[in-house]
Amino acid sequence: MTVVYTDSEREVLGFVDISDIRQPAADGVVDLPGEPTSVAIKGNYALVAVNTSVDYVDTSGKLVVIDISTKTIVRTFELGEHHANGRSTNADRCSIQSQLSITLS
Fold first, then answer.
1. Greater pLDDT, 105 or 15
2. Whether the Cβ atoms of residue 37 and residue 43 lie closer than 8 Å to each other
């Protein structure tokens, strides 16, 4: 069994093996293209919301899909950008066999 967690300061997704709950063991990290803010698990995939904003005015983010077994990024989706003038853009949309709600703020 594996615990998956976000580390915003280091900009990574981390894994801890808890097969033996009395002796949890670090099980690697995946470098991310920004600050991870949350993670959800769907099957063997970790869906990571990543803040890529350079400031609080021009916001942007990504949805990074990670294969938990190989600890590799398999897909990245641009979630959009919100600019000071109020214009929003979405570069990509996806379906992962269920609904996923993402809020950029």
1. 15
2. no
Q: Which domains does the chain have, with CATH numbers?
A: 2-89 (2.40.10)
> How far apart are the C-alpha atoms of 38 and 60, rounded to whole Å?
15
Q: Given phi > 0 = left and psi -120 to 50 = alpha, else beta, which region is 91?
A: alpha
For the chain, first and last CA: distance in Å? 33
Tokens of 85: 């003038």
Task: Give the count of alpha carbons within 13 A of 12, CB side only.
Answer: 9
The CA-atom distances, in angstroms, between 51 and each of 14, 21, 23, 103 are 17, 32, 33, 11
Write out pLDDT tens, residues 25-75: 999 999 999 999 999 999 999 999 999 988 877 788 899 999 999 999 999
**Per-residue b/e over 8-32, b at no fewer than 16 CB within 10 Å?**
eeebbbbbeeeeeeeeeeebeebeb
